[in-house]
Amino acid sequence: IGVTSFFRDPPAFESLAATLTEYVRGKAEGQALRVWVAGCSTGEEAYSIAILLREALEAAGRDLQVQVFATDLDPKAIDIARAGTYPLGIVGDVSPARLKRFFTRNDSGYQVRKELREMLVFATQNLIEDPPFTKLDLMSCRNLLIYLDASCQRRLFPIFHYVLRTGGTLFLGSSETIGQFTNLFDSVDKKWRLYQRREVAGGTYVADIHAAVALEPGVVEGVPLGLVPRRSELGAGPLAERMLLRELVPPTVLIRERGEIVHIHGRTGMFLEPAPGQQAQANIYNMMREGLHLELAAAMRHATRQPDEVQRRNLQVKTNGHYSRVDLRVKRLSEPETLRGLYRVSFESSRALEVSPDTASEAAGSHTRVHELERELLYTKESHQGTIEELETANEELKSTNEELQSTNEELQSANEELETSKEELQSLNEELQTVNVELHGKVEELSRANDDMTNLLNATDIATIFLDNDLNIKRHTEQARRVIRLIPSDVGRSIGDLVSRLSYDRLTEDAREVLRTLGAKEVEVQGKNDGKWYLMRLLPYRTTDNVIDGLVVTFVDITRVKLLQESEARLLRALQHAPVSVFGIDASLRFVWACSPVLGRDQSTLVGRSFEEVFAGEHHEVRAQLEAAVASRQPVRKQLTVTLLGQPQLLELFAEPERRREDAAGLSCVLALVSKSAEA
């Protein structure tokens, strides 16, 4: 389902931008910033994250190596993402400033600029089966998990935890959540689903997704035997420390926030007993003896809200038919780093009440029962207040968590999958190499197609073109250029000044250096030595997409026919200037539009743009009348007229032909020819 867009949920990307800025500032020189966008579809989200990274780098003034891996199951979507061309409709998702900075407008839409495309590597990948990318600072997997069932999601979250570096960020969609894996990730932005990788005590969190099993015999006091050194490997000092800890430190249990036991120290049999039934993991709430369950739950509630230790004194615990007094202490650990987020629960026993249950019941009487009811009522009030607060928070987030509840209603149990670290890293490196090879192969094919398109375009224009570098060496040329300069395929790389030219022009090298120096275009008309053809030679700077001058472009356009027309026009003008003929054009209002010779004694330079009346001021009424008749009738006129020129009556013949520029006659083309200088003759 390839539904995606640039900066989908803009507030979520604003929150992500702050996190990326912290990463950029915290990276040391030489360290790479690695990002993986899983399920990238056609690439809009991957490019959006790349834009945020580029903006963060520019704002911090850093030049770090950035690697953005973008993968998807659909190879067609990956091809679209590699091309980086998107329709004009993205203007609704991308701001004008980012469009100008990171995109180039073309005929088909907007093309992502080269500097941004080089940050990304696109590849096809099956997220569930193929090896993942590792050592990541950010992993984005938005709006993908909602299409997977609960078993797939339970497999993926431990993988996400494994591939992220310490402090790395997991970016999910607004309809997704980490579910039961709160021991693997801390929430950074609960609304927009930004999570930070949590360090798990004892190493990587291990989940068994196939079956829930009880504690195995290989676990002693909550710690796997593989992590406990043998006695023979310990010296006298460590053994002495162990003995003192066992004698002086009270029974203590390290647990997670939800009660999962991580480590047990000392003899806790007076306070804990295994619960009946098969369990996936030991939970302290299922093992508490009578009298401690409510007090521990209340103490844990207070410990999550304050850094200080929480104490509950003189608690009455039923153990093996007797009642004992116990002091309970709970504290949330903030150091060392590997134990951060865990809770320490300590038990200190006081004087035991050596009485049987029946005797204790009679001795305590109603006072003991009232005391127990008061404590239960206090705990109920605290739980009720906490429930009210949680309900208010849930109501505020109800709209954003509606889809989340639909996708996570099957998540009833959570487990972890142990990964083979060395093998997976090697497979990840191989996958990265294959991805880079695929990307390079795609770019080579794209370059070949662009080269073919340019070659066909240049040949279709029939314009001789030569590309030169900054040293005036030939980089490439068209077939038509061989008609102008003697070129063979082996001339590529040689200087243009070393080749034999077929032009009667020896300043090509000097002109080329001048264009490189001034960066201005130059045009020169040159003629061939042998065939006499004329060419319009243009020299222009070669500009790259980054606006860098990288040589020259020299073109030769055949203008032989234009030169012949110009020469014919010049000869005609010279003939008209020496003949007793006036040739001119007027518009429909008898205003002179052009003139090739003097008219009725007036120089042609004073005629254009002026009306007949302005030029002759009432003279030559008969000429004006004939011109008006020709305009009105839209018919050619040929008439002999007697006019007075230089005080002498002369006989002239007028030819007036209508000019049809549109549907109507827009003016006249006229000729006044001298018939006789003496009208009487």
Can you walk through the features of this model?
The chain has 681 residues and is α+β, with helices and mostly antiparallel strands. It is 35% helix and 26% strand. The protein has 16 helices and 27 strands. The strands form six sheets. The protein has a seven-stranded mixed beta sheet with strand order 6-2-1-7-8-10-9, sandwiched between helices. Strand 11 and strand 12 form a beta hairpin. Helix 1 (10-26) crosses helix 2 (44-60). It is elongated. The protein starts with 9 loop residues before the first helix and ends in a 5-residue tail after the last strand.
Give a short summary of the structure.
By secondary structure, this protein is an alpha+beta fold. Helices cover 35% and strands 26% of the residues. A hairpin with a 5-residue loop joins strand 21 and strand 22 (549-558).
Descriptors:
elongated, 7-stranded mixed beta sheet, 26% strand, 5-stranded antiparallel beta sheet, 681 residues, alpha+beta
What's the helix count?
A: 16
Regions with pLDDT < 50 over 5+ consecutive residues? 202-234, 352-356
Helical content, roughly? 25-40%
Gyration radius (Cα, Å) is 46 Å
The 3D shape can be described as: elongated
Q: What is the number of strand segments?
A: 27
With strands numbered from the N-terminus, the spatial order across the biggest sheet is 6-2-1-7-8-10-9
The largest sheet, given as strand count, sense and whether it forms a barrel, is: 7 strands, mixed
Distance between the termini: 99 Å
Q: Kindly report the average pLDDT value.
A: 79
Structural class category: alpha+beta
Share of β-strand residues = 25-35%
